[in-house]
Design brief:
This protein has about 210 residues and is mainly α. The chain has seven helices and no strands. Helix 1 (about 1-35) packs across helix 2, helix 3 (about 60-95) packs antiparallel against helix 4 (about 100-110) and helix 5 (about 115-130) runs antiparallel to helix 6 (about 140-175).
């Protein structure tokens, strides 16, 4: 689990570093071109054009905002899938012993799926705000804000969904021994989700301020 978190953190750092590196690369290329003769200013090699195009792509507001959508939807979706899987395995064991608990176990299993919905909502808001659906392009600053706005719902959604799946699984085991503990299992699971809701609120406020 720790290795996966480190890999995801490294990927986020790379995603944030590429646009910044692109800015310095563009600045360095501009200074170099200014120092050349007037006759050679309009002559740029094919490899230089490819490099400029690559950095321009990663430093554009549209690219940054789309990366944010990937973070919000992708990370929270991965967390929900993992959490639902954890709860589902436990539900299968509990229901095999007592089929009457099928409905209650299904409710507990579905709780970790909400983080994926939160990430989808945040990603949809970003696609509306960045103007891509309307054929417009956001500025670099707007793209960076949208990217950062997706981090809370993505990261918190990933971790909270996994832990909520574990709590839901524990609630099923408790309910298998004491059938009247269903409400308590719901409460324990909902407490974990509170932080995913707070992360969604912060992300939504940051997106709407663009």
């Amino acid at each position: 689990m720790k290795k996966r978190i480190l890999i995801l953190a490294f990927a986020l750092v790379v995603a944030l570093a590429l646009p910044v590196t692109g800015i310095f690369a563009d600045s360095a290329v501009s200074n170099d071109v200014a120092a050349k003769d007037v006759a050679s200013e309009n002559t740029v090699s094919e490899s230089d054009n490819d490099g400029l195009s690559l950095w321009s792509f990663f430093s554009s507001g549209t690219t940054l905002s789309v990366i944010g959508v990937f973070i919000a939807v992708g990370l929270s979706g991965i967390g929900s899938a993992k959490g639902v899987g954890i709860a589902g395995r436990t539900a299968a064991g509990v229901v095999s012993e007592d089929p009457s608990l099928s409905g209650k176990c299904t409710v507990l299993e579905a709780l970790p799926a909400t983080q994926g919905i939160y990430g989808f909502v945040a990603g949809f808001l970003v696609l509306i705000k960045n103007g891509v659906l309307a054929g417009q392009a956001p500025s670099f600053e707007q793209g960076m804000i949208l990217l950062c706005a997706c981090l809370p719902v993505g990261i918190v959604g990933l971790l909270s969904a996994i832990h909520q799946g574990r709590v839901a699984a524990a609630g099923m085991q408790m309910m298998a021994k004491q059938k009247d503990k269903f409400a308590m299992g719901i409460t324990y699971s909902a407490m974990v989700e509170t932080y995913a809701i707070l992360a969604l609120l912060i992300s939504a406020l940051m997106i709407l301020m663009v």
